[in-house]
Amino acid sequence: MSAVNFVSGAVRIVVPASSANLGPGFDSMGLALAVHDELIAMVTSDIGIKVDVEGEGAESVSTDESNLVVRAMNRGFESMNAEPAGFILKCRNAIPHGRGLGSSASAVIGGLAMARSLVEGGEDLLPDEKILNIALEFENHPDNLSAALYGGFNVAWLYSADTAGAVQPLVHPDVVPIVLIPPHELATTKARGVLPQQVDRSAACHNLSRTGLLVYAMSHDPKLLFEATSDQLHQDARAHVYPETTTIISQLRAKNIAAMASGAGPAVLLLVDRNDVHELEKALSVVPTDWTRIAVPIDFDGVRVLPLPV
């Protein structure tokens, strides 16, 4: 017997994509982007689950208990001592999978937030801080998770393996993210698997200084974004697993454009000053024609409940 009551009817949630690392901020910085997965769910009295997936990943995403959103929902219900007989879930996915745009983090945060929204008093039983910590059971780095949860520009850290914190520094209105998305995927596990266990002190010092500078550049002076996004910690080590990405980043940075791998790649993120956007078109000629180029607004709201469509 459930220890809580469930809301009647369906709930609709949207959760943003995200780009992590932002160059030097490995596993500690994330930016929420206004590309959204949409979840609609309803608790039922019938035993079992029914899952329908549209859009990105529709051909490959599981529709049973192994579905990542379902797993996150079940973990959220468990944390609230809630035991629904079953539920119906519809996923309308717009976040590309396997590109470094936080699709798995969005699934986890979306699932946990959905479980919370389906329980009466869920905001008290499962506050944001608890959602972030439970989400670490699915991903052990909080950069994408915090961005999907809170929105905006996030600096996130681990107190311990199962406890994280995050803050959202202000973002200068002239910062414009542009995402270059390839047609092919890259498994995050593969991209993380090639990273060395130790790094040179000079590389660590380089990234420490640029990470601090990045917070200032994002908040106060977008003209410094090029230098602030310089990395010596992880992208060179991954160069051979996404050679096309590496080439594009190198060619754009040679033109003083703040280009970097988006998360584990292979997508490329550009952070540019709004006043310089008109000068980008010629530089972007180096991007292959089968890549998608989009200017994506920053999502400052994070995961949220929206009214059901009429």
- Main sheet overview: 7 strands, mixed
Q: How large, in whole angstroms, is the Cα Rg?
A: 20 Å
How many separate structural domains?
A: 2
Number of helices: 10
Molecular shape? globular
User: Can you tell me the residue ranges where pLDDT is under 50 for at least 5 consecutive residues?
Assistant: none
Class by alpha and beta content: alpha+beta
CATH architectural grouping of the largest domain = 2-Layer Sandwich
Summarize the structure in short.
This protein is α+β, with helices and mostly antiparallel strands and 310 residues long. Helix content is 29%, strand content 25%.
Show the helix and strand layout:
Layout: E1 11-20, E2 29-44, E3 48-55, H1 68-79, E4 86-93, H2 103-117, H3 122-125, H4 128-135, H5 143-150, E5 153-160, E6 163-167, E7 175-181, H6 188-193, H7 201-219, H8 225-228, H9 243-253, E8 259-261, E9 268-273, H10 280-283, E10 292-295, E11 304-306
Helix pairs in contact: 1-2, 2-4, 2-5, 4-5
What would you note in describing this structure?
The protein has 310 residues and is α+β, with helices and mostly antiparallel strands. The protein has two domains: 168 residues, 2-Layer Sandwich (Ribosomal Protein S5, domain 2), CATH 3.30.230; 121 residues, GHMP kinase, C-terminal domain (Alpha-Beta Plaits, 2-Layer Sandwich), CATH 3.30.70. 29% of the residues lie in helices and 25% in strands. It is built from ten helices and eleven strands. Strands 1, 2, 3, 4, 5, 6 and 11 form a seven-stranded mixed beta sheet that branches. A four-stranded antiparallel beta sheet has the order 8-9-7-10. β1 and β2 form a beta hairpin. α2 packs across α5 and α4 packs antiparallel against α5. It starts with 10 loop residues before the first strand and ends with a strand. The relative contact order is 0.19.
